[in-house]
Amino acid sequence: MSTHSISSASTSLVHAEPLSAEPDIGPLTIPGYLREITARFGPREALVLRREGLVSRYTYRDMWERSLELSRALLSVGIGKDGRVGVLMSNRPEFVISVFGIAMAGGVAVVLSTFSTASELEHLLRVSGLSTLLYESHIAKKDFDQVLAALEPAIHQAGPLQSLRFPHLRRLVKFDEAADARAAGALESWPEFLRRADTVPPALVEATAAAVKPSDAALLFFSSGSTGLPKGILHAQRAAAIQWWRWPRIHGVGNDVRCWTANGFFWSGQISMALGCALSTGGTMVLQPTFEPEEALELMQKERVTIPFAWPHQSAKLEGAANFKSVDLGSLRYVDARAPLGRHPTVNATGWIEPPAYGTTETFTIVAAYPGFEPGPGKEHAQGPVLPGNTLKIVDPMSGEILPRGARGEIAVKGPTLMLGYIGIPLAESLDAEGFFRTGDSGYVDASGQLYWDGRLSDIIKTGGANVSPREIDAILATYPGVKLSRTVGVPHETLGEMVVSCLVPHEGTALEETVIRDFLKTHLASYKVPRRLLFFLEQDIAMTGTDKVKADALVRIAAQRLNVGSSIEGN
Fold first, then answer.
1. Could you tell me the strand order of the sheet in which 54-59 lies?
2. DSSP three-state, residue 128
3. CA–CA separation, 412 vs 397, rounded Å?
4. Cα separations (Å) of 65 from 60, 68, 193?
């Protein structure tokens, strides 16, 4: 199916076909989606987790039953319509089950980054307003038992939790494979919490799930914003369902999908693409809780993976793994021949390519893409046509006026997967007068209505698939003794997209050490936010504007030259 614009060719305003014209779109709520795929694919394998010599396999029917059980437990403690439940877990079946179970109860899944430091987690818990937290006690080197106890010691005290720091928080449920013992105070073990399901009849969950509407709130994500602090982005039920149904068509996959992923489901792109491609087709998700390249390659071999979802920097690590040349990856089918896995000697890449697409967390991923990844002659650098149900325009960043076709400006979008809003921010402050979201990205629309993305107008750094706010990093660097001025920028990088680099001006007579400062930042920032390099400058060597803001474009060029990368970068 091709997507056709129905708007005037004289301006960049593009109205796509209505959503009803898109094929293979099923129920538009998360409970409806789960019910539909369970009815279609009940006995098939849905989820696989291999860990420490043990293998857990879940059919679609198993996934339904576990989600139903969790939903009953949530209803028993008062979680209902719009109740916010946090999910802080690695890639494991319980994460997927939690999202489905929360939705069946009518609640909102607040998906939290496992990269969060203590200070970041404190912010997320406070602003999200979640009342129940489902969390995994140990993830990689993080001990969230210790982190949470330090943030709120009262969780271990007898009786109901009454936290002045987190006034909405009432209950914590710990998932720990090694511990099923009864916990104290507001803290419960996962098995203990699930036993609460016995007090709620399944029919009540069925009725609750049936009452969920496509426009109801369903998922709350957090993404770095230009102000530094993560923004809470609230999405409706239909946003998730539409993209889950849509992604298999965009990727051009069949019913043979066995998808490997180690990326956190707290990224909207990950939970949208990977889950949609696998479950909407009756396929299987092969889960790796945290990324380890040698283990990942073994999983792909043992589980006969057909499509891997890896960020570019992960692909580079897979290619550099000790067992890269010895594993058999012949099952890989949906892999781009230009990618490291596509170049593996056992892989027969048959013309499948990564589909060009454009989207944001605020639109729950894609609003423009080439269905079936067929750009066509002369369209190799386009992101594709606007997808059904969406409207897109290119506007002057200053005046907001719609620009003509071919003119570069700011991309603005609206449609059925657009966020309900940022939490704590009036919707009128997030959208323009016509209801469009101004993305901060630069691009243009050609004569045939195809979108071309040029880059961004904002200063957010996009590294390894994640958004990083330079202001957040600079605010922390400003507290480090001896730092007079800092400016963090994104330097073009072959595998990361952009590399986070901080440019520092020391106070006179102060000697700063790169490794020591990076160690300091690691205690305050998630690992992907920590600058890969720190560069030191004299104050007069950094160009300043009249308002004392460093010229970012010039600084990026200087940093790239210092690091001997991107020597061909040109100014605007």
1. 54-59, 45-51, 284-287, 258-261, 307-309
2. helix
3. 10
4. 9, 5, 16
Q: Which CATH number do you get for residue 18?
A: 2.30.38.10
Positive or negative: CA dihedral 177, 180, 181, 187? positive
Residues 68 and 215 in one domain: yes
Q: Can you count the helices (H) and strands (E) in the chain?
A: 14, 27
Using DSSP bridges, classify how beta strands 466-468 and 461-463 pair: parallel, antiparallel or unpaired: antiparallel
Tally of CA atoms within 13 A in the half-sphere of 294 that contains its CB: 3
Q: Please tell me the number of Cα atoms within 13 Å of 270 on its side-chain side.
A: 24
Radius of gyration of the chain (CA): 24
Count the neighbouring beta carbons within 10 Å of the beta carbon of residue 236: 24
Higher pLDDT, 331 or 373: 331
- Examine residue 105 and state whether it is found in any structural domain, yes or no: yes
- Residue 81 CA to residue 218 CA, distance in Å, equals 10
Q: For residue 472, what are the domain limits? A: 461-562
Task: Examine residue 231 and state whether it is found in any structural domain, yes or no.
Answer: yes
Do 448 and 516 lie in one domain? The reply is no
* Inter-CA distances, 83 with 7, 105, 206, 260, Å: 40, 9, 17, 31
Reported as a pLDDT band with limits 50, 70 and 90, residue 469 is: confident
pLDDT tens digits, 378-414? 666 789 999 999 999 999 998 999 999 999 899 999 9
CATH number, residue 138: 3.40.50.980
pLDDT digits (tens, 9 = 90+) for 265-297: 999 999 999 999 999 999 999 999 999 999 999
Residue 511 and residue 382 share a domain: no
CB atoms within 10 A of CB 409: 24
| Structural domains in the chain (count) | 3
Enumerate the H helices of 326-375 as residue ranges.
none
End position of a domain, from candidates 425, 456, 487: 456
Show the tokens assigned to 82.
Answer: 């719009």
Q: Is 137 exposed, middle or buried (0-12, 13-18, 19+ CB in 10 A)?
A: buried
Domain CATH code at residue 506? 3.30.300.30
C-beta separation of 359 from 368 below 8 A: yes
- 76 with 197: CB under 8 angstroms? yes
Helices (H), ranges, 265-329: 268-279, 293-302, 312-319
Q: Is residue 442 part of a domain?
A: yes
- Average of per-residue pLDDT across 486-505: 92
What pTM, to 2 d.p., does this model score? 0.86
Same domain membership, residue 219 and residue 99: yes
Cα–Cα distance measured from residue 535 to residue 548, given in angstroms and rounded to the nearest whole number: 19
**pLDDT confidence of residue 272:** 97
Query: Which amino acid, residue 44?
Result: R
Q: How far is CA 106 from CA 8, 21, 125, in A?
A: 41, 28, 20
d(CA 250, CA 294): 30
